[in-house]
Amino acid sequence: MNNPFEGKEIWFGVGSQDLYGEEALRQVAEQSTEIVDALNKTGKIPAKLVLKPTLKSSDGIKQFMTEASSNPNCIGVVAWMHTFSPAKMWIRGLEVLTKPLLQLNTQHHFEIPWDTIDMDFMNLNQSAHGDREFGYILTRLGIARKIVVGHYTDPEVAEKIGTWARACAGWDAAQTMRVMRWGDNMRNVAVTEGDKTEAERVFGTQVNTWAVNELVSYVDKVKDDQVKALIEDYKAKYDVAPELLDARYDSLFTAAKEEAGMVNMMNDYGATAAVDNFEDLGTLSQLPGVGPQRLPSEYGFGFSAEGDWKTSMLVRIGAVMGAGLEGGASLMEDYSYNFVPGHEEIMGSHMLEVSPSVGSIAKPKLEIHPLGIGNKADPVRLVFSVAPHKDAIVVSMADMRERFRLVMNVVDVVEPEGSLKVLPTARALWKPQPSLKVSAECWLRSGAAHHTCMTTSVGREAWEDFARMAGVELATIDESTTPEQFEKDLMMEEIYHRLENQH
């Protein structure tokens, strides 16, 4: 996967005014430099913080916000008021800002200098004053932002800015994403449908369809050396079934050739997410298995099945947000419950496409098994169990007519209690928070999809930040959720978002 943070910047704007004189402004600039340098040195913020000249006037603020909005390398803006910065100066600038915003509520000094504090110190170090003025105008203008409070040396401050920066990268990826659909949605399925025009308006993501037989032409053009290189990669990373290297080598060769064709076609069209449908395979000889499983883990691409382009989007966003962290993002689907008292769990899986990017208990096995749908040759696929992970995320996107709804469940991935030795698919077993019964009831109440994106790299905060940037509804099911309050929250969210969409 290409590093999504390479060359990307977070612009750091410091608010002040001319009232305090040149000496005070010099100290503002020096202390701001110290703060930004310290935050960058933590290594917790994946994109570089870039300090810009102190903002002291309405014209200067508007120019700063205009340049931030138009610069493709800037993925977000941090604003901090070192002194008092009259908020009416910020109105014109804030109204042209199109990049995500973080309001940092910090200060240079850690402790009040009890014995020496005077009015010169007070005039220079009044972030608590300035940030409240700034907060007022942001709220009055209805500008969504993340708020981080604390001294800049507090590790939690850098961690929260870093999580938000990851969400900024996910939002940036959504804005430039092209989802390649090979064929249409699975017939008669409701939840995989959605408004692709609205998706481009809300997320900036282009969703279009290409004929499956154009993919076939790409597969046919793949050269043998590219296929053989992929097979060597399989052998290095997976436990390859002996038959695939002997009697059924042709099937392995075909699977690798399909992967190469998919990647080549996506790269040629600038696509970063894709989706296929087992009901529309053209003259492909296999339903692609190992290739789609590797799209998130090896290339950082999104992938989903059965024409579900919305989940493909989420997997790409999750892969970008989690780049460089342990774990990853993958298509997941709720399959089966375990109702044994004390072991109430959900098994997620899919017929072929769960990605090893989310982590596995043991080295994934590359195997070939029959598949009763698609009417094609036996597909090659990776078989593994997802490794235990506390506070993983499953998130879905559903089209609710006039808006998109994200629903997120915090889950604890656990190790299967049995061998699953005859189950020929990748799978994950998790305990949903707060319990299986509450989680399932709330999931059903929300209308959330059966397809989800699972992330084991980034947690709930990154998805919360992303939803705020996108301005979309996010319903969260976690350890504190109750069905009664969840239902009330859905009702209030529906009222709010319908009123917002009337604007």
TrEMBL record:
Domain L-arabinose isomerase central: 178-324
One Pfam match: AraA_central
Domain of life, source organism: Bacteria
Isomerase listed as a keyword: yes
UniProt cross-references to Gene3D superfamilies, sorted A to Z: 3.40.50.10940
Signal peptide annotation: none
InterPro entries, A to Z: Ara_Isoase_C, AraA_central, AraA_N, AraA_N_sf, Fuc/Ara_isomerase_C, Fucose_isomerase_N/cen_sf, Lara_isomerase
Catalyzed reactions per annotation: beta-L-arabinopyranose = L-ribulose
Residue stretches in coiled coil: none
Molecular function (Gene Ontology), one example: isomerase activity
Limits of the L-arabinose isomerase N-terminal domain: 9-174
Location of the L-arabinose isomerase C-terminal domain: 328-473
Cofactor: Mn(2+)
Assigned keywords, A-Z: Arabinose catabolism, Carbohydrate metabolism, Isomerase, Manganese, Metal-binding
Pathway: Carbohydrate degradation; L-arabinose degradation via L-ribulose; D-xylulose 5-phosphate from L-arabinose (bacterial route): step 1/3
EC number, UniProt record: 5.3.1.4
Cofactor note: Binds 1 Mn(2+) ion per subunit.
Annotated positions binding Mn(2+): 306, 333, 350, 451
Family note: Belongs to the arabinose isomerase family.
Purpose of the protein: Catalyzes the conversion of L-arabinose to L-ribulose.
Protein's name in the database: L-arabinose isomerase
Organism: Bombiscardovia apis
